[in-house]
Amino acid sequence: MSLPDRPGVLGQVARAFGVLGADILQVTVLEREAGRAVDDFTVSWPGGFAADELRDRLSVVPGVRIEGVWPTREVPGASPDYDLLGHVVTDAERAFVTLVDAVPDLVSAEWAVAVDSGTGAVVHGSWQAPGVEEMPDLTPLRPSAFSEGPLHLLSLPVKAAGLHLVVARSEGPAFHQVELDKVVRVVEIIALLAAAEPRTLA
User: Would you tell me how many other CB atoms lie within 10 Å of the CB of residue 36?
Assistant: First the structure.
């Protein structure tokens, strides 16, 4: 949600959610720039609303724009990044398989794949990943967030493993820099944890 970055607006948004019967579980600030903020609200909504109806209901708050509405597997207050690192420490040999399987939950994504940096061949995919054999066009040299048609993507090299990590979602807005930075940090730590271990990716 994009909203004016000034005192009182967040309270107005919270009241609007309350009127709709939604319980705000978590708020993450994604951007603050040029007098506006982009905040990610995780809400529990027993009744639920369609995205268009939600936009209409929240438009009562002046200056608020809904950028996207999508379901998430994130559990507010949980620490999936710490859980991921714990699994890697326990079984460092499968560090990058574990990364691919777990990283979608870190950034409300739908799937992830590991791509061989040399050939572009997909060597492992998370459970919702598309059944494709290669993704050569989705592996820029630097960590990047971008969109390809309906897909919003994060893509970053995992040099220690000769891989490229691609993370995707089709529901909701494009990934923000803060989400890319989070994945980059997690990948850097996993690469260090796995550095002294033989690796299996299958």
Answer: 15
* 64-123 pLDDT tens trace: 888 877 776 665 555 667 778 887 888 888 899 999 999 998 888 999 999 998 888 899
Side chain identity at residue 175, one-letter code? F
Among 79, 158, 73, 81, which residue's Cα sits nearest to residue 124? 158
What percent of the chain is helix, strand and coil (3-state, nearest 5)? 35, 30, 40
Ramachandran assignment for 190, one of left (phi > 0), alpha (psi -120 to 50 degrees), beta (any other): alpha
Which DSSP string corresponds to 6-59? Answer: STTHHHHHHHHHHHTT-EEEEEEEEEEETTEEEEEEEEE-SS---HHHHHHHHT
Residue owning tokens 């999936």:
80
* pTM, full prediction: 0.68
**CB of 48 within 8 A of CB of 62?**
no
Torsion, Cα 172 178 181 182, to 10 degrees, reads: -70
